[in-house]
Records
---
Amino acid sequence: MAIADLILREFPELNQEQREVINHTEGSLRVIAGPGSGKTLVLVVRVLNILLQGLAQPREILLCTFTEKAAFELRDRLSLTAKKLGYQGNMSDLLVGTIHGICNDFILRFRHRTPLGNNYEVLDELTQLLFIFDYFDEIVGQEGNGKYLSRWTSRWGAIEGARSYFNKITEELIDPVKLLEFDDPFVQAIGKAYQTYENKLFDTNRVDFAHLQKLFLQLLEDTEAGTALAGRSRYVMVDEYQDTNFVQEQLLLKLARNGRNICVVGDEDQSLYRFRGATVRNILEFPHHFKTCQTITLSANYRSHSKIVNAYDKFMSSWDWSGGSKRDAFRYNKSIIPDPEGKFTEYPAVFAIWGENRKDEATRFAELIGFLKLHRVIEDESQVALLLHSVRLEHSGDYIKALEAKGIPAFCPRARGYFENEEIQYMVACFAVFLGYYGRLRGEISGRSLQELANYVDECIKALGQNYPHPHPLADCLQKFTIEISELGPGDTLDRRLSDYFYQLIAHEPFCTFIKNENRGRNLAIFSQLLSIFQNYYHYTVITERNREPLRFHFFHSFLRLLYEGGINEYEDPDQPFPKGHVQVMTIHQAKGLEFPVVVVGSLAVQLPSPKDIDRTLGRFYSRGQFEPEDRVTGFDRMRLHYVAFSRAEKILVLTTTDQPKPYFNPIWQGLPQWPYVEQDILKSLFFRLRSRIVLKKTFSFTSDLKVYETCPRQYQFFRYLEYTPSRSAEFFFGALVHQTIEDIHRWAMDGKAETLDQYKIQDLFHLNYQNLLKRGLRPIGPKQREEALLQVMNYFNQNRSEFPRIIETEVDVSVEKDNYILIGKVDLLLGGDGKLEILDFKSQPRPAEYDDRIFSYYRQLCTYAHILETRDGKLPERLMVYWTAEPKKEDALMIFPYEQSVVDEAGAHFDKVVGCILNKEFKLGKLPDKNVCKECDLRTYCTRQGDLQ
């Protein structure tokens, strides 16, 4: 199959190797893509070539990327290229995402075939640690001979260590029974702990990232689900394949098993994530899985100056990559070349900074940036990136201070300096005051980390007292909170959670002013998220006389100590990841996939280790034997890490150190001119233009975005835009309980098990969903509401079971791409039969009056869904229906609407208007929401003090 003529006309600059990749549309393909070789362009154009030639529809193509940001960028570039080439298909149907995200999407569709229930929680790094902490006695067990699990001397050490082993056991698909049978006390202990951990995950309806992938792999191995899933993906393309692990390799190969049309793109020289289980063997051994597999190398670098390319290529090829009789056993044999048609100005593109000490090194670095800005070599400071092995303040602080001394701001959100922000210091102080975490009430302060936290809290309280003393309203508010908690008597309970106090506090100065600054407002939003996590994992629903003291110690001595010691990153704006006017300070891992005109690389004298203990312990249980020799792993990893760092530079690469660099840097370091003793006059003559970055399209949902904004712009601002976590929501609980149980009934019917459904089975499904909602920390509904919810479900079941054979699909994702945003939604139920197609949407409320605004709003939404389905499947739904489950009789519950194209057009204009308001940040209250909305809202005190409510 040739390349479409339209592509060749629009992209004449494609080189021969890039064309070969685009032209390869059948069978397996490995693309070794060097730095700056245009791999993203090639992936995008390859997808369009497949689509333009009619080899697949957009929904039959799956693209995996390593990060969400990369997925969004790829999605938007695909959309822009499709428009450029005149392709008319719905590009929002393409499945583009991270491996974790794609696994989650498919699991949601086939969840009833997994151990997970509705509302399952995916644990991140923090919540995974807290989960193990929550069930520590059951998972880890008691201390023995001064150690936990025969290895770790502290509880948190055991939690962090066990977590790493658990992830590796899952990623390598190790049978824990084999660990129990092995003659080693630690291996047996970790195997037993893993079994308990896994059981607890599913018992509590939770899943970690590793198990998310394992469950998806098991779905792919299921005869019925696996066939459906693999059939969904005619073409599978995977970027950054060098950073995949064993379970990811297995599931990707199974996804592509039908047509074997899988293309993997990557560069083993840029493999950085061994500590997350990644292995270069996946890309190096990829062809072994197929009878025939073509390999194409993209070796021309279109990013960097020729001196930079030659320098880092020489650096990488200087290392010994041989193994056995093979010269390049652990590296694909290649040489990266500068743009063959490029013209490169002669100037010092690679040089060094060698400081007498860290302060002197940082000063010279700042002087260089000042020089580049003064002489307009760079248009903006954001064109400069400083790359370090770690950006925690102890590593990045000297550089940041030196820049500040020159009047140059630095942007380093991952320095884990969250707790140094003024708004967070004041909030921590407030909680310390009303919870009584001061003086003797703190109890014994033992250990370095606890003493550091106590000192920090003291400084926060001192600053709060100095700036907001009595009679300031905040001081009066805190006094009120303190009294109501301290005066609780035996058996007394406050109907308050910690989050409730938080929303009272942000109604007062200085917090209501902080919120007007977006960065500060988002830092407070992170605090609300952390409170929710604390309440969920430490099981504090409300404050009582009995739990107020343990709550105080758990919140400060356990939870905040963990966060303060580990550090938390500050908010990063995805729309402005590199704010103008700031030098970017980031880790080398952070810089992966990025490029900057000027790159300064530090850490050249730092001894960087590689993790080997887990592989050493568990390696004998892996499905594959050892690949890279243990004694060479550290060397390999150091070379790859710095190769990535050096190849981020476009125009100037600077290597900086205070000590003699490690010997492996000799091929790139030796003979470099040193700043300031470089040809400055030539540098002054250069000009690096600031390139504008594409703003990614945002995705908006009919229900969780548009409906929320229309209900209350301020609620949208806080809970959707700024991402505050609500304290509790009983209304959501009721609707979710009804909706999810009806969805379960539909899935049983689709699996051909409708006859097995009866009152008792439905009660079981209902109870399971109720428990799973509770596990998410939602405020439970009362007994009468619970009775009403079950009655709604049973009424629906009894009056509609005859319709179950007509079910085509439930919870159908739909999306439409607009000029500047993507609109997504979910159809509750698709019905069919006799060539007909019908849409049904559920509402767990009584049927509104005929002229209620909600009815037209839902009608507009259904017409849009129908239009999307017609565009996607070529069939227009004949009936659009809403079912009001609170109505006892079906004839009252069911509302039927005709499809009207004029309504679709009007709806599109309306959605554009609402999204425009959101994008323009128009969050001021105009017309007040319904009083019942305000009554249940966490922001009612804030709105009252703002003068919007009486």
---
Amino acid sequence: MPLTLKIKYFNTFILREEPTVTTATVLNATVDGDGLPAASSTVVITASNSDIVDGMTVHGPGINEKVTCTISGTTLTLSEAQKIEKGVTLVFSNPTPYPVNATTGLPTEFPANKEWHIEESRIKGGFNEKTVDFGAKAYLVDKKYNRNHRKNAMIYSGIYNSRTGVNDTNQFSIGENITKAVDSIYGSIQKLYAEDTNLLIFQENKVNNALIDKDAIFTAEGGGLSTTAKVVIGQITPYLGEFGIGKNPESFAVYGFRKYFVDKDRAAVLRLSRDGITEISSYGMKSFFRKHLQLVGDDVFKTSGRIFGMYDLHAKSYVLNLNLTRKVEQNKQTFIKETTAVAASSSGAKEINIKSTNNNIVVGMLVESNSLKNNKASVTAVNNRVITVSTNITIIENETIRFTPQQEFLNSVIKNSTNFKTLAFDDKVNGWTSFLTYNPNFGGSVASNFYTWNGANLYKHYSNDNRNTFYGEFQPSTVTVVSNQNPSLVKHYKTINYEGSNNWKAIEFKSPAEDNISYKAYPIPGNITGRYLSPNDGIKFAGFVPLEKKYYANVKINDTTSVTGISALTTTGVKGFFAETILEHQPVNNDKTTNKKKHAELFSVGFNYEQSLY
């Protein structure tokens, strides 16, 4: 019903609606390829809110002025597409405080579900009293005030002083010069690292050095001097070289004054030190990184797009882990462990079809599954995804089949394949010293101890008694040696020797003869596990023999029928310009029992050869 007011004198009265204000939290957000908020007109909130009605004005981070919404359940539709982040709180209010008709724009009657109040312009309501007014506007309203993502700029807040209790870390005044930008042509800022009184700024394609709490002035001759100034970030100076950290800031690691990082787009692993930026990937590993960094994915939000860098204080080395989009060959070895495969179809015969090729399945393994009841079967042949076993077995489609080796070390070489590569760089030798068999999800050093994460589990290295065992899995040590003395001389390799621990064995010895053809020798077993039979012709091998604290073995050529010129020739030694040998250590006691606590040492490897006469 109408409301009548009696007044004693002329005055100004304003009828206002009590504004309805409510809030909601954003559940999901639309992001672009870099993980930053993308413009969208649809927003999902955490829970429905009956106070939110169609036509309300939306306020909050990422919201422009005069944006209204409609609601259906927990889904909001905005009048304009906005960039809104997940988890922010949005405020909803009536678009106008005045009760007007939407069609005519004239005042309306008082709705029963609204609260209203009357404002009087005179203070105290007295006759000829001062009126309420805004007065002179000594400020400027930024109608486009909104969150802005500047990928090449930095911003800093007010100070925090624990002694005086001043805490202005939540204040970012736009009236002060609190931003500092680098050249946007070199991409976004990916990593910041504070060092003493300098700040290192890693962009995608550039590395910069900025002064902290000081600035640079220049003399008439062009020389630079540093001076204290009331600035947080001073002069920015780029390092020489068109290198950056790409989009892999997780590759950054630091030890002392040396910083290590990876520029994937340039296939380079880099070291930043007092002498500037050095490309350490060129120290004998240029082709390796050119090949494998191309296999790292471009999506940094997936594991296959990550390049983890960490520093091992125990071994004083930079450890680099590459996560690849496909499997690559790791190392040749004779060690075999239990593996699994999934059946592609049901079967009741001797052949099992598996869904994907598994190079770890070899002849002689025992076959186990939940559907097999006291039915022992072993692998007799492997042909890609078809596994042939010794007896008819019943396998159900999609069933997981376990293949268990009857012995850990075989007489034949197997090729492992993994979707990662982990390797270490040592500054003392200025080179890459070793490939590693573990695949960490990140890591670092604390108090001279090296830790890595395997999923959600933290693992401390150099703490377990078993050697070469990471995350509970053992892998043997292998060393590849190339003999290339007198490279123009055709040599006849007769013997091989080494200094080190016992029971090293040569699992492969070859020398290139022609294109894609090599002279190969029989494998040479260790001095403890030696004397095994060749599966082809029953030849016995004595293996390495200890003599005067060295281990010696003869080199006997194997399968010469495919090599032109020496077909069906039986001889000792291998012919070639150079020889490539893979040594593997099998940790056993003198009674041939496995002892994984036994350490392995290899000091030197030598070859005895003479000039070839044929």
---
Amino acid sequence: MRGKFKIRQLNKRTGESTVILEESNQVSQGMKHALVNILCGGGSREVEDYQFKYFQLGDQNYNLSTFDVSADVPASSLLSNFWTIKSPLDPSAYGTDSAVTVVKRDIYGLGSIIPSTRGKVFDNFVDPPDTTKLSCSYTNNFESNPRPIPPGPRKTTWIPGCANTWEKKAENYFLHPLELSADYTVSGPTFTSPTWSIEYNSSSNVAGITSCLRGSTEYIYNDGRKPSYWNQGKKNQTLSVYYMPEYYASSLASTSGSTPTVGKLMLYNRTAAVLGGDSVAGYNQVRFEYRYDLKYSSSSTPGAAWYPPEITQAIDGYSQCTGDCRDKWEGSYGSGVTGGDVSANVYCRDGAIYTPADAEADYATRNGPGKDCFDTPNSGFGPSGNFYRISVSWNNVPDEVIDVDTGLVSGIALQAFNYPLFSRALSINPTTGAITSTNDHEVTPREQLYIANLQFEYTPSATPYQYIHAEKSYYITSSQDFLVIPKGYTTSLNDNTANVRLLIDEELANNQTIKEVGLFLKNPNGTAGIDNPFLTAYKVISPPLAKNNEFSYIIDWELSLIDSTTT
């Protein structure tokens, strides 16, 4: 499917017509979805429902030229996977004096439910639902204090935990060991806010504890389900997350001890821990060290510098299971059965820093596409380049570990544990910048970190970041405002083309800056009662149209089906 897009400007006073933009356009997911309906016999059986009936104008636009996590689009492979334009105008922006009709319709697309509000939101530039991702695999929502009163449902799919003794104390019963809050002043890897601020509880004694973020078992999905406490482990799985720790200059003796130093990600196999008689048998984990220029505080400008974290350990549970634990492991899984391969990576804006060969060398070398980032400050993601992505992968898990069944336990009961604040600086030498670490978090201020976008998936390495707001995406509809394409404005000028003309008359959307336009099929699903339009083509208007009543515009859009075997 290809598209050609042309805008002509008409001067009301002189009648002069000028072509101001003529380019190709981006075909979007709605066109693919409609074609699947036709080829597979699903959706509407009415020809009229597959006609171009609606369009929208918007005052913002996606960045479709930069395919990385720091922009709107995470990867070229996901380029067409969007269902809505970025910022459609509403009736007040379109105005009331135009001859073009404005109507409300229920746009169709991939979306999810925001836990805190239960509101719908579209998830653009993500893969359609499939079996490679867990139900809570992607989220940028975390639960903050207080904990809900039992049996109240959780507010999100990820919650603080892993500090069982602390949480069970009466004085902490309704508190989280980690405090999380949405921070609208800090933009994360997608250049959008909020990100989530995380620190140890400031109102309770947290000395000697270590807390994590884990999947919630009390969350209630939109369809009434609850997550399983333990996920099913498979041959390959990967957990990844973005971090930006707050740090303090070595010269600030009163606060330098509040600088985070070490984090940890773990894919915990509870089955192995039970069968081995030792929790370490289930620890498939990576440790990493945060890196800064400690001459400057992160709150100081200029000079604040974050470097990519460094992997210091990636180890599987089997390797840590020794002595009696190893005997029990072999008695359950069989002699010679190991624990699979655990590896890790760090990602900057140029890509992964490590390669598989670097992992074999215990991360003493760096030869990935992002290797030069290691000594380059602020080479990560987000407006300041100070968010870095870290992943842990547990791959090539032996079949004996996957298929074990003792009658009491079976398979891999898996949990993803994220320890963003595993240890802090006890002190920083103001001359050398040397750090010593401790797990005692009883400091003032509490060490702090910003976190974004946990991604848990059944893949051998971290795939392109995809922004899903909360629950696993499914197909939703939501009311939006559309402009109606009159009958007779759609035709076919060639055997393999559909040609559409859109009119933006002198009175439509005046005093608006038009940066995008979307073209929609009428109702390919055949929904009764009200059309569910599909976005089929999209175009960024550059330079934008500063709309006024001196000019009208005609958009000629041509879409064609091309046989790729003949090109």
---
Amino acid sequence: MLPAGGETADLLPLAVAIPLLGAVVLVLAGRLLPRTGVDAVATAFAAATAAEVALLWARLGDAGGRAVSWAGGWTPHGGHSVGVVLVADRLGAGIALLVTVLVAAVLVYSWRYFDEPPTRHRGTFPALLLLFEAGMCGFALTGDLFDAFVFFELMGVVAYALTGFRIEDPRPLHGALSFGVVNSLAAYCSLLGIGLLYARTGELGMAQIGAALAGHRTDTLTVTAFVLVMAGLLVKAAIVPFHFWLPDAHAVAPTPVCMLMSGVMVELGLYGAARVHLTVFAGPGGIPAEAVTRTLGTLGALTALTGAVMCWQQRHLKRMLAFSTIGHAGLWLLGLSLSGSSATAGTALYVAGHAGVKAALFGLTGVLLDRHGSVDEHGLYGTERGSPYTGALFLTGALALAGLPPFGTALGKAVAEDAAAQHLPWLPALYVLVSALTGGAVLRAGLRIFRGAGPRPEPRASDVETSGSGEEPEVRDPRRAVPRTMTAVPAALLLGALALGLWPAAARALATAATAFTDRNGYLAQVVGQAAPLPLAPPPEAAWTAPGVLLGLLSTAAAVALAFAALHPATTVLRPLSTAARGADRHLIVPLRRLHSGRLGDYVAWLMVGLAGLLAALAAQI
């Protein structure tokens, strides 16, 4: 494997610098430009960043090369360094490219989305989006653990501000507060873990720490540092029991922000967890792979089931989509915990396809909020019968979420299922179940809203607080037609998810990227420079197979059946199923719903319980 050239390495800092510069320009010039000018400037900077990262992705090549950039020329001496290092392999550059494409799409979607802001605040929202992009790109490309924390915190602080952007409504402020407190506490834990690693090794670079840990045995300090560093990443990834903040934040955040949080921010937490584990802790002196697989794999399965079950229970569309993200994040953590290139390739494909589908579904939910000031599945019953185009997009997104071939979600799911089955034969059933429940819930909502399917739902007292009725519309001019960009962008995102499943070259490129990502020795050799990297192993097969297609059709059929059963519970053949569902609701679902209390103190307590449990589980195995 050959390193990428110096010209390629020079592209790495630009992925952070361009959106930062754009944010500064918007803050300074926003009050001088008309709204159209602000939108044009913001979109231009986002498009320039996307083009620059696409060039970086192309230059890294299919051979699995890496680009390493030392800021200010502070290169290592004797294996030690004090400089800031950016490292791009194809998977890191790929997720950065996904970030830039989604940010550009969200900026286009946001044209004319909000009310006309005061002149002094005209550039605030797009400037925050560009800052968000800079933090996410920097996190995806950094090779330094402390700088990863800095970029992660930049991303988090901007996300708090974006969540509470509508300060005239107390609900976004409450959601932003819960989001900020829980994530900040987890970030402090991560910083403490970084401090422990620095005390042990005297290094902050991921590769340098990984190489230095080889001279030490695995002990309590190593395990504690691993758990603490993982805290911030698993909280951002909304892994059970660190997930409680996510549905609350999504329920109140502006729709364009939800598109980014579920589309890429949660995924970046999982990417960071996999990067830190593979680079820092996967070698001698780190955490045994079997312990990580068992512990994180169990957390992933628990997260997938919790997210899927809670998704099915929602009528608030934003909370429904948020719990769907939690369910799929559990599947991705499960895949990444297996540590093989095949599982990583499938997860990468799944993430890329899901980003387009989930962002599109959130965008279409924004259309409903714009038209009706509501995201309540029951309250919106039959209100959109006259919107066949929007309805077709929403139902298509639901089927793609359920794993319908040939969407990219289905291809990633198929490759991940095949890899998971090699470890435990029953794991593909978990993928099918989670896809069916999450896709079925969204399909049920879409059929009720856009087709008026089934009888009008009866109100339930337990749903009052999270029904989604009485929301503040994000545009308050009832005479205004929904901008075309609000449906064109979701359509383009769904087409992108479809193209990912139909374009074999994209799947092959991500399979090669996954092989390089899991090549720990090559990463250390190139960054630390202590040895020549070995040739890469052949990439795994990432293509459609008959079992993968059949499992995709099975999960889609199950989603359709679940939606039909929910819409027509009085059907004779479905009455026993409805009776069993009511019993499960009383004994399982109600206690689970009560755990999601909305109380900040409860969420902090669960954070502490989760960290203690993770530490105990790893310590017991090591």
